């Protein structure tokens, strides 16, 4: 569905993404993982047209989208959420979804907020698109509540609805479970599965290994801007280069991964298993942080028992 070849971007002397060749397959869930600063969000920024690559190409559904601006990329069927939640808490849930629709299609943010003439013509269409998106994320009944009145999980769903309202074929989620408790994480996993069952293709960046290992069909591992491994969760979690990347970043005072918010358990689990044998580290973090073993299928663990 999406093929990138030799993709790279430099910020000054810093190769944030370097020579990445990878594919995202239709109908699957692809996770992009890697230590903090690995280039994961930048990779999404390149795919979604927020950044222009300094090298390489991006093909989506057989067409070159390398140099397309964001709104054209959205028009082709790629939508995304951001690492930092960007919902408007004082506006209604439906208004948020509708703004998502407008910003991602014809009218700009100012048109949407100021309700210009051009924007008004899109209103009906946006309302329908917004409601359809809210139904997909299970928020139709909350459409008229202020978004800020929802739980953390509800607000994340609003963010996903904003992305879905442009009716994408490929949805990019940047750390969707950040700040969520285990129960909310399980609910989010169920939602992502449902969306994929409904025909959507999902790629997500995530540090929570319980979610990644329980959900992903394919994993792409990045480190220092480069792709260092890819494969199924079982393959990747025993890949020496992956183990080295995570252990290395840990040993140097880095974190196995979180975003500076209160998702503490993941690195703690890694720490608790130091010296337990390198290849048990990633698996240990999966087991220790599984929200609920009864509801999250951790079938991949059997490979390491
Ligand atoms: N707009 C920018 N200007 C300069 N440097 C940038 C810019 N965006 C990203 N970088 C740099 O690119 C590198 C990769 O950053 P990126 O945000 O993609 O990492 P990440 O894998 O998403 O990390 P995290 O897990 O912490 O979110 C970092 O060194 C970062 O400082
Ligand atoms: Mg990031």
Automatic annotation (TrEMBL):
Name the UniProt record assigns to this protein: ABC transporter ATP-binding protein
GO molecular function term, any single one: L-isoleucine transmembrane transporter activity
UniProtKB keywords: ATP-binding, Nucleotide-binding, Transport
Listed Pfam families: ABC_tran, BCA_ABC_TP_C
Coiled-coil residue spans: none
InterPro entries reported in the protein's UniProt record: AAA+_ATPase, ABC_AA/LPS_Transport, ABC_transporter-like_ATP-bd, BCA_ABC_TP_C, P-loop_NTPase
One GO process term, biological-process aspect: L-alanine transport
Domain of life, per lineage: Bacteria
Chain spans, region Disordered: 252-275
Cellular component GO terms held in the UniProt record: plasma membrane
Kinase in keyword set: no
Residue ranges constituting the ABC transporter domain according to the UniProt record: 2-249
């Amino acid at each position: 569905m999406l093929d990138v070849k030799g993709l790279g971007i430099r910020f000054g002397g810093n190769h944030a993404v370097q020579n990445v060749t990878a594919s995202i397959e239709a109908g699957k869930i692809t996770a992009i993982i890697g230590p903090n600063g690995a280039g994961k969000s930048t990779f999404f920024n390149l795919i979604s047209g927020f950044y222009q690559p300094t090298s390489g190409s991006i093909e989506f559904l057989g067409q070159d989208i390398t140099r397309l601006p964001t709104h054209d990329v959205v028009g082709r069927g790629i939508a995304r959420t951001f690492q930092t939640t960007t919902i408007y808490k004082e506006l209604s849930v439906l208004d948020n979804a509708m703004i998502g629709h407008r910003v991602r299609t014809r009218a700009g943010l100012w048109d949407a907020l100021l309700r210009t003439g051009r924007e008004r013509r899109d209103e009906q269409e946006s309302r329908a698109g917004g409601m359809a998106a809210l139904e997909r994320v299970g928020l139709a009944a909350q459409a008229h509540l202020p978004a800020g009145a929802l739980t953390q999980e509800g607000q994340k769903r609003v963010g996903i609805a904003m992305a879905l309202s442009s009716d994408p074929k490929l949805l990019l989620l940047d750390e969707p479970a950040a700040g969520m408790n285990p129960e909310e994480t399980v609910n989010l996993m169920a939602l992502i599965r449902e969306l994929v069952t409904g025909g959507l293709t999902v790629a997500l960046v995530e540090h929570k290994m319980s979610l990644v290992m329980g959900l992903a069909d394919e994993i792409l591992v990045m480190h220092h801007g480069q792709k260092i491994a890819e494969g199924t969760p079982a393959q990747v979690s025993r890949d020496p280069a992956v183990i080295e990347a995570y252990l290395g970043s840990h040993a140097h005072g880095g974190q196995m991964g979180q975003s500076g918010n209160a998702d503490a358990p993941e690195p703690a689990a890694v720490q608790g298993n130091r010296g337990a044998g390198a290849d048990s580290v990633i698996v240990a973090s999966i087991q220790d942080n599984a929200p609920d073993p009864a509801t999250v299928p951790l079938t991949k663990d059997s490979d390491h028992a």
